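Morning F.,

Quick status update on the modeling queue. The single chain you submitted on Monday has been processed. Sequence for confirmation:
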Amino acid sequence: MNTISSFHRQMQQVKDDILAMAGLVEQSIHDAAEAMARRDASLALAVIQGDRRIDVMQNGIEERCIALLATQQPVAVDLRFLSAVIKICAYLERMGDQAVNLAQRSQALEELLPTEVPATLLEMAQLAQEMTRDCMDAFAAGDVALANALLGRDDDLDNLNRHILEEMVQWMASENRLVRRGVEFILAGRHLERIGDEACNIAEEVVYLVEGRVIRHLGRPEGQPQPSVGPL
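Structure tokens below.
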């Protein structure tokens, strides 16, 4: 009984740690978006410098999960939990990397003459932040409905990304527009779109964790549950 209690205390610590890591990633994405919107070079630099902490947390969580897998030989939902956490760790780390990329776009734009950030890009930043928060809320609560709702929003972010590309191509075609500035905005849109993709990856892991269903590559939900492929 003591061994079981100790195991589940360690499992709870893993969950607490990954939620703390997610909090850092969410803040990093928020700050990177703010740095771009406000032309705040110091905030952009803080995002870049803070990425190391996220990387260290990823390493620690993954090492703890591997140790638990090796020593405790968990089964059923506990096995799914540890497997999901290892993947979610990687997704969160990539989201942090995209926040760094976004901060670097802010630094590049700071070197150019001031210009208003396209409204489409600001909308993308808001949606990416919402998806980041929702995917981890779904994980924390084991909320499959929230995870599926998030998956349904991925197309919205993709459409906005296409729109910013088209908008910037037209923008750069104007005689008085600088090409480099438009390229930086296009890249920023790509970084935000990738954050949304990683949030969807986490949402898919929530479905796997709670229901034992793998829904990767089966398409996004359209009001009906995905067909079960059986628990692993």
